[in-house]
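Worked problem 6 (solution included).
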Amino acid sequence: MLVEDRLKEANLVLPTAQPSVANYLPGIEEGGLLFISGQLPMRSGKVAYQGKVGHDVDIDAAKKAAELCALNILGQAKAILGDLDRINRCIRLGGFVNCGEEFRDHASVLNGASDLLVIALGNAGRHARVAVGCSSLPLGAAVEVEAVFSIKSRPVEAS
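Solution. The predicted structure is:
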């Protein structure tokens, strides 16, 4: 099944990729890999989940924030690749949770992003992962997620 069909079947909407807000690229395709810069839980141009997880944001909302980050990752991937079905597999996710030093459920939060990628990519969405806590994130976001994918070569155009 095609990636976008899997998302539709799960009632998930692929967002339009947003441009970077500083001197960096939202993603780079290099050497058979696609590196996607950290994505915030943005919806309609605004951070949808702000605050510290465990204080201002509960775990269930933080998981939704991580899921939204993963959807934004796929939006960036589509903008770069033109076709999400060029993704061979997700290699690695890196997740950052805005939280206090007492917070211990980083992995539970990042499950939102991991689960979304398995929904979208099937077994090719299973990946290595790191989930860390930090004292703040850009724009007060609750979560930020980055990704690395292996990708299939571009189809050769007939001459």
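Discussion: The CA atoms of residues 6 and 119 lie 7 Å apart.
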